[in-house]
Amino acid sequence: MATRNSPSVDDAAVELPPAIPLDVPRLTRLSWELGSRVLEDEAARLQSTWEDTETPWKLSIFRATDATVVLKVRTPVGRERFYGAAELDLEAAVATLETAPSWRRVD
What we know:
Blueprint: E1 28-30, H1 32-40, E2 45-52, E3 58-63, E4 68-74, E5 80-86, H2 87-99, E6 103-105
Antiparallel strand pairs: 1-5, 2-3, 2-6, 3-4, 4-5
């Protein structure tokens, strides 16, 4: 009997919204509740905040543990989305953000 192995939603790669010029491998989408709770923890430290000068998109990067970061994306309508990543994976991607013409660091 032949079976088909169709990819599930869980197998799909997680990506940041197209407006955010970062390509971070092995990104994990966090629920709003979990992302908010992680950032309320005393151990979470803001590393940098970025904004698009042409649109109201914002990105904040927080160090959650010694090796983990949380990305907080604020959409133009004010919704917050949270993503988790390894800090090493993010380091290489931030260079792209630094050279993006419409993005600037605000902290």
